[in-house]
């Protein structure tokens, strides 16, 4: 079974590396990104010749049963337009981008009009920690078959709706909170460090939240926010656009965007 990866950043390369390490018989892993040399380098780092780099989009997805599409949200529509040119009947496309629900719905229409099957896949945890077992919310028309294949590969898939965009809406609404929480953690840590009271501050926060041990969790959020600031800034931008499209002012999302902008 051939599995294609379109976009080979953190998500695509982590999924591919994890699948390669499992030594599943009969799978062929092929990766594509516009930067061919970078993709070759990433495949070499995985090692063992287990993942090959494609020179073109068409060769990456030709005959692939499943295609993971993990591209920046601002490139998503253009990429799916290109993919539709080479889409085969029954091919499964897993859209892992953090795009707006409306964009996911548009991507689905493009793929389905060419006979493909589209899954709106919302990644809900850190892929570097979970690999291919990263929990994913899925929605779309006829995604049960895609979910079955992904589950057999080890992915934790939960179908949340029959329309593309439903999973994306859940993820982005959640991101308003989670990315904002990370921003609060960064600001509280930075200020409390200046006064030398960081430990006391976070201990107090833990007590206010019922004694939960959250200091390590907030530290992880803050570190991830700094490390992936550019990508998370784009995601918060999608959150803000989604809020405004339904008449929500998005004051907190705007403030979160400002902090992430400062981190980039």
Automatic annotation (TrEMBL):
InterPro entries: 6-PGluconate_DH-like_C_sf, 6PGD_dom2, 6PGDH_NADP-bd, HIBADH-related, NAD(P)-bd_dom_sf, Pgluconate_DH_NAD-bd_C. Keywords: Oxidoreductase. The active site is at residue 171. Gene3D superfamilies: N-(1-d-carboxylethyl)-l-norvaline Dehydrogenase, domain 2, NAD(P)-binding Rossmann-like Domain. Residues 193-261 form the Phosphogluconate dehydrogenase NAD-binding putative C-terminal domain. Residues 2-124 form the 6-phosphogluconate dehydrogenase NADP-binding domain. It comes from the Bacteria. SUPFAM superfamilies: 6-phosphogluconate dehydrogenase C-terminal domain-like (SSF48179), NAD(P)-binding Rossmann-fold domains (SSF51735). Pfam families: DUF1932, NAD_binding_2. GO terms for molecular function: NADP binding; oxidoreductase activity. Belongs to the HIBADH-related family. This is NAD(P)-dependent oxidoreductase. It comes from Slackia equolifaciens. The lineage of its organism: Bacteria, Bacillati, Actinomycetota, Coriobacteriia, Eggerthellales.
């Amino acid at each position: 079974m051939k599995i294609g990866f379109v976009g080979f950043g953190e998500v695509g390369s982590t999924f591919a590396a994890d699948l390669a390490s499992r030594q599943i018989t009969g799978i062929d892993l092929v990766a594509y990104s516009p930067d061919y040399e970078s993709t070759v380098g990433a495949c070499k780092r995985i090692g063992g010749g287990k993942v090959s780099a494609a020179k073109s989009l068409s060769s990456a997805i030709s005959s692939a049963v499943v295609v993971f599409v993990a591209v920046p949200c601002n490139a998503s529509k253009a990429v799916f337009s290109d993919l539709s040119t080479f889409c085969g009947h029954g091919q499964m496309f897993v859209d892992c981008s953090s795009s707006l629900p409306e964009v996911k719905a548009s991507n689905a229409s493009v793929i389905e009009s060419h006979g493909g099957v589209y899954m709106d896949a919302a990644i809900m945890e850190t892929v570097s920690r979970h690999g291919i077992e990263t929990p994913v919310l899925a929605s779309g028309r006829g995604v049960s078959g895609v979910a079955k294949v992904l589950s057999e590969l080890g992915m934790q898939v939960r179908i949340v709706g029959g329309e593309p965009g439903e999973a994306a809406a859940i993820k982005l609404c959640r991101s308003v909170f989670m990315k904002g929480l990370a921003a609060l953690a960064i600001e509280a840590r930075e200020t409390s460090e200046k006064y030398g009271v960081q430990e006391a501050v976070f201990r107090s926060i833990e007590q206010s939240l019922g004694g939960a041990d959250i200091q390590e969790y907030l530290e992880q959020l803050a570190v991830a926010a700094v490390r992936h600031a550019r990508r998370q800034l784009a995601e918060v931008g999608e959150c803000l656009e989604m809020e405004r499209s339904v008449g929500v002012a998005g004051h907190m999302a705007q403030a979160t965007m400002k902090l992430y902008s400062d981190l980039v």
